[in-house]
Amino acid sequence: MYVSRSLSLGDLSRSVFLFGPRQTGKTTLLRQQFPAARWYNLLETDVFFRLSARPRIMRDEIASSGVDRENPVIIDEIQKLPVLLDEVQLLIDRDSIPFVLTGSSARKLVRSGSNLLGGRARVRKLFPLTSAELRELGVLDLQRMLCFGTLPGIWFSSDSADDLAAYCGTYLQQEIQQEGIVRRIDAFSRFLRTAATMNTELVNFEAVASDAAVPARTVREYFEVLSDTLIAEVLEPYRRGAKRKAISTGKLYFFDVGVSNTLRGVRFVERGTEGWGKALEHFIYTELRAWLSYTRDDRPLTFWRTRHGKEVDFVVGDDLAIEVKAHPNPADRHLSGLRAIADEGPFRRRLLVYDGDAPRRITDGIEILPVNLFLQKLWAGEWSV
């Protein structure tokens, strides 16, 4: 099924690094937007071995077919052959050829000291399907999103649970084992499943190390692997508050709700349970992260929690504070964090997103929005800079 993605790479006045986890749809997006592009897919064994043996073959092939500045040269999974970046830089500088370089991991490029083109290429990220993209298809289904996430291949699958299990196994094999990112795949596998159990929670390295039977120092390295391979991030706390001392520990979020559920062994999330509340918070995180990236909004995404327990789930810059509650009828006690954060900075909007139907506005400026309405307003640009 054709899906119109929110990320457009149409203006190639500069080359682009396009990063995103496997199966977010990078190849499909590029084939839709650049049907006449020249392709080098490094997942194809013959292409990989041909170019790894003699990288300048790419330069010769492009020259022999004639320079085309209207369509990019696309190199899929560039992290598999970083040496090609020297050839890419030469062709950009000499012939002004635009490139799109895709990758499911930036780790190998960054850690190996590879040529990252010295500012000649922008960096863009592709995320799983967003609510705005699914809304255009008329298939917005909160229950399905909170159970299986929104990876394109999983969303349109006839057996999402089994395909998610296969996806997580493929990730372990291809991203971790084949590229030699960690020495012991069994230890990393235990860590990954343990980390998934603390999704949306404060990171506790010692607890993860104990549960996964992995040294604490190794656990810290593994968290870096999750970040570098785009599988998860540690969301930093908001530290610019004017009055209260904030905690310094970050919170863990995986890139997709379904992947996190599967790694924890969860196949179904029931409405009204604690698991539903965590999944809803996680899903709102994925929407905010994609929205900020696609709209080129460089405001940081953080969360706020004081040492005395006051908390707001998400803070966008100093402008927007968002609390997520899976309660169908939020009470006054659910607003305490949003009330308290008003003293910490010049927040223009304070929102409570809840699992209900009717919007409300509290007298002190807090807006209470149903999930569906919040998502519509978010992608309509109501809270953009």
How would you describe this structure to a colleague?
This protein is α/β, with parallel strands linked by helices. It has 2 domains: 15-125, Rossmann fold (3-Layer(aba) Sandwich), CATH 3.40.50; 131-379, no CATH class. 41% of the residues lie in helices and 16% in strands. It contains 16 helices and 13 strands. It has helices spanning 26-33, 45-53, 56-65, 84-95, 107-111, 131-137, 142-148, 152-155, 160-178, 185-197, 205-212, 216-228, 257-263, 274-294, 336-341, 371-379; strands at residues 15-19, 38-41, 73-76, 99-103, 121-125, 232-235, 251-254, 301-305, 311-316, 320-325, 349-354, 360-361, 366-370. Strands 8-9-10-11-13-12 form a 6-stranded mixed β-sheet. It has a 5-stranded parallel β-sheet with strand order 2-3-4-1-5. Strand 9 (311-316) and strand 10 (320-325) form a beta hairpin. Helix 7 crosses helix 13 (257-263). The longest helix has 21 residues, at 274-294.
Helix and strand pattern: EHEHHEHEHEHHHHHHHEEHHEEEHEEEH
Number of strands: 13
Portion of residues in beta strands equals 15-25%
Overall spatial form: globular
Q: Number of helical runs?
A: 16
Strand order of the largest sheet: 8-9-10-11-13-12
Kindly report the average pLDDT value: 89
Helix content: 40-55%
Count structural domains.
2
Structural class: alpha/beta
Report, as a whole number of angstroms, the end-to-end distance: 33 Å
Major beta sheet summary: 6 strands, mixed
| Radius of gyration based on Cα positions | 22 Å
Assembly form of the protein: single chain
Give the low-confidence spans. none
